[in-house]
Design brief:
Largest interface: A-B, 31 and 28 residues
Largest sheet of chain B: none
Distance between the termini of chain A: 35 Å
Order of helices and strands of chain B: HHHH
Number of strands of chain B: 0
Oligomer: heterodimer
Number of helices of chain B: 4
Helix content of chain A: 55-70%
Radius of gyration of chain B: 17 Å
Number of helices of chain A: 13
Strand content of chain A: under 5%
Number of domains of chain A: 1
């Protein structure tokens, strides 16, 4: 995974960067082909779309180092678009179905207290939007321009934190003690608002932020900030749609079959209307 | 039950109305006409915070309102008249809020630059007030005369 984005100067960087993406896509397709119960094609499509966004970020966009617009597009794809696609692909559910021996360790991991804390929508929001603020408002951005290892590390953080956030907000993989619709929507609101404020703040202070850049193209930085604002909108719309659509599917009035988590039909939780459902999932 | 359906229909459609008005503002005045500026230097820093929060809330309201509306429909709890009134009410409320708070109090940006602003502000805010009043009237009438054939 260290070759993710900006593969080093040796060999053919363009092709090498695609290897982890191809592995992700290939492993998933292999697992789907092994699943005898029939895997929903929508999940496969979401996972492959996530892989395509990853490929775009590590391939063509990595070819313009030093251009803040390309960096911003990479951040949007790695931290927001790709993670949502990957999370909607429900890889953990697929793994549990296809490789039964991993059930116990995965179950133990999902019950672990530190994971509950880490995977809470609010902490995931802080990790993703807060991490971005940390990079863009401090000399970290300028330092990463000079140190490829730090650069890869930051990109991996974007991807991991983005995945954590998408999973904790919209599922569909199981998560014990996942809070209700109001907390999830609130975390999404906070993350999206933080992202938007950061974008406009960077636009307003393009002459000084991110600090420590050797040669500064203010117009390119302003374009990048604008891209951040509108790209954030697209990501928020997608994530909000995933969140509310999952809620909509889970709250069928007559409690037909439950597609997720297998709650017994006829429970009160499937009769909740929208405003009642805000406090319960 | 009719009262609750009325309230939910007004609220769900109101959320959509406000969000649609915000989207119209963004698409027409920011993007197509280019009158509004993305940022102008007189913006207060508290304005930047409020702007980001409001913008994120609008998008969430658009999606959430849509699914709430769809949920009311599939439950047969949607009163169309109340919903139309709520939509107008939400749209007018947003327009007025945008004209007064965003443009004047927080000074995020003005309606147009290099022109005499007063007529623009008057038209903007009075159109918001007209929508708001029309919405209130429709909502009020819908309360007195529930949907024909609907639940009592």
């Amino acid at each position: 995974m260290t070759v993710l984005a900006h593969a080093g100067s040796g060999g053919d960087p363009g092709l090498l960067a695609f290897v982890p993406v191809a592995l992700l896509a290939g492993a998933y397709l292999l697992a789907v082909s092994r699943d005898r119960r029939g895997w929903r094609p929508g999940r496969t499509a979401a996972w492959l779309a996530g892989c395509a966004a990853l490929a775009l970020a590590v391939g063509p966009l990595a070819g313009a180092p030093g251009d803040p617009r390309a960096h911003m597009a990479q951040h949007l794809l790695l931290g927001m678009v790709a993670p949502l696609g990957l999370a909607l692909g429900a890889p953990v559910t697929l793994l549990l179905r296809v490789v039964p021996p991993v059930r116990r360790p995965v179950g133990r991991l999902l019950r672990a207290r530190p994971l509950h804390l880490l995977a809470h929508p609010v902490s995931a929001a802080l990790l993703t939007t807060g991490g971005l603020a940390l990079v863009l408002l401090t000399p970290l951005y300028a330092t990463a321009e000079r140190h490829p290892a730090l650069h890869h590390g930051i990109h991996l953080h974007y991807l991991a934190a983005g995945y954590l956030f998408a999973w904790s907000v919209a599922g569909p993989d199981p998560a014990p003690r996942r809070p209700g619709l109001a907390v999830r929507a609130g975390a999404l609101l906070g993350a999206a608002a933080g992202h938007a404020v950061l974008a406009k703040y960077l636009y307003a202070h393009a002459a000084t932020l991110p600090p420590g850049l050797p040669d500064r193209d203010v117009h390119a930085l302003q374009d990048a900030a604008r891209l951040m604002w509108y790209g954030g909108d697209v990501a928020e719309l997608l994530l909000a749609t995933a969140l509310f659509a999952t809620w909509y599917a889970r709250n069928r009035p007559r409690g037909v079959d439950r597609l997720f988590h297998g709650d017994p039909p006829g429970q009160r939780s499937c009769q909740l209307s929208f405003d009642e459902g805000l406090t319960r999932w | 039950m009719a009262g609750s359906a009325w309230r939910r229909s007004v609220l769900a459609a109101g959320v959509i109305g406000a969000a649609v008005m915000a989207a119209v503002d963004e698409i027409v005045f920011h993007q197509l006409l280019g009158w509004h500026h993305f940022y102008d230097r007189s913006t207060l820093s508290v304005g930047l915070l409020a702007d980001g929060l409001l913008h994120a809330a609008e998008l969430l309201a658009l999606v959430g309102g849509f699914f709430w509306f769809a949920d009311l429909r599939r439950r047969g709890a949607l009163l169309p008249r109340a919903a139309w009134g709520g939509f107008l009410l939400g749209a007018g409320a947003f327009q007025l809020f945008d004209g007064v708070v965003d443009h004047k109090v927080l000074r995020l940006h003005q309606i147009r630059y290099g022109v005499h602003l007063l007529p623009y502000d008057v038209v903007w805010n009075s159109s918001g007030a007209v929508l708001l009043l029309a919405g209130a009237a429709v909502v009020w009438r819908a309360r007195r005369r529930p949907r024909p054939g609907g639940r009592p």
